[in-house]
C-alpha cells in the first residue's frame, strides 16, 4: 500500500537522482536490497554523462549494473563513511548521490555531513521499503524497521505513536508515547509501511 502524500512539511520529498554536469567528482552510493534492474538502468542512463568522474559504491551485493561501470561493494554503512573519508580533500564541486531505503539514505547523509559535505552537495532518493527509523522523544533511542503506526521503543520499551514528523537532524521519524495524555488509552496498531 502506497501512502498518500503527507501534509507534514518536514517529510522529505525525493526526486530522481541526476548528476550535476558542471560539478566535479560524483559518488553514487546504493542500498543493494532496494535496487532492481529498471532502477539500475535508469541510474546508468542518468549518470552516463559523468561516467569518467563517477564512483559507484554498493552496500551489499548488487545485481549486474549494466552501464554504471565498476561497482565497489562495501560491507556496511561504516565502510561507506570510511570510503568517503578516504576521498580527501573533499571539494566544493564534489557531489554525493544516495539511493535506497529512507533509513539508509539518511544514515549516509548524516555521515557525509559530519565529513564536511554541505547539504547542497548531497542528493537523496528513496527506493525499496517504506519502513521507518523512529527516534524516541523520551529516551532518545532509535527503533529500526518500523512498519506500523505504533511501536514499542527498542530503548525504553514505551509504546510510541509514529508521527509523520521527520527529523533531519536524527534522520528519523519522531515517536511519542501513545498514552501520555490519557494513560492506558492506546490506538489500534496498524501496519502502514511495507
Helices, strands, pairings?
Blueprint (H helix, E strand, L loop, with lengths): L25 E6 L5 H11 L6 E6 L11 E4 L2 H9 L9 E6 L1 H13 L7 E5 L5 E5 L5 E5 L3 E3 L6 E9 L4 E6 L17
Parallel strand pairs: 1-2, 1-4, 2-3, 4-5, 6-10
Antiparallel strand pairs: 6-7, 8-9, 9-10
Helix pairs in contact: 2-3
Question: What are the key terms here?
Answer:
five-stranded parallel β-sheet, alpha/beta, 10 strands, elongated, five-stranded mixed β-sheet, 194 residues, 17% helix
Overview of the structural elements:
The protein is built from 3 helices and 10 strands; from the N terminus they run E-H-E-E-H-E-H-E-E-E-E-E-E. It is α/β, with parallel strands linked by helices and about 190 residues long. The protein has a 5-stranded parallel β-sheet. It has a 5-stranded mixed β-sheet with strand order 7-6-10-9-8. Strand 4 (about 95-100), helix 3 (about 100-115) and strand 5 (about 120-125) form a beta-alpha-beta unit. Helix 2 packs parallel to helix 3 (about 100-115). The mean pLDDT is about 90.
Amino acid at each position: 500500500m502506497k501512502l498518500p502524500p503527507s501534509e507534514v512539511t518536514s517529510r522529505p520529498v525525493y526526486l530522481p537522482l541526476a548528476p550535476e554536469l558542471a560539478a566535479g567528482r560524483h559518488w553514487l552510493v546504493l542500498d543493494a536490497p532496494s535496487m532492481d534492474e529498471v532502477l539500475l538502468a535508469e541510474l546508468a542512463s542518468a549518470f552516463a554523462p559523468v561516467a569518467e568522474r563517477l564512483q559507484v559504491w554498493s552496500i551489499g551485493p548488487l545485481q549486474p549494473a549494466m552501464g554504471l561501470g565498476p561497482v565497489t561493494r562495501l560491507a556496511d554503512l561504516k565502510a561507506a563513511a570510511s570510503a568517503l573519508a578516504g576521498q580527501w580533500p573533499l571539494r566544493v564541486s564534489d557531489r554525493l548521490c544516495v539511493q535506497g531505503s529512507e533509513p539508509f539514505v539518511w544514515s549516509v547523509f548524516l555521515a557525509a555531513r559530519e565529513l564536511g559535505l554541505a547539504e547542497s552537495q548531497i542528493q537523496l532518493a528513496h527506493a525499496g521499503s517504506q519502513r521507518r527509523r523512529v527516534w524516541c522523544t523520551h529516551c532518545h533511542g532509535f527503533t529500526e524497521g518500523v512498519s506500523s503506526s505504533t511501536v514499542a521503543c527498542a530503548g525504553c520499551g514505551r509504546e510510541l505513536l509514529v508521527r509523520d514528523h521527520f527529523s533531519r537532524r536524527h534522520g528519523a521519524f519522531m515517536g511519542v508515547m501513545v498514552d501520555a495524555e490519557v494513560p492506558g488509552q492506546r490506538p489500534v496498531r496498524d501496519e502502514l509501511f511495507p
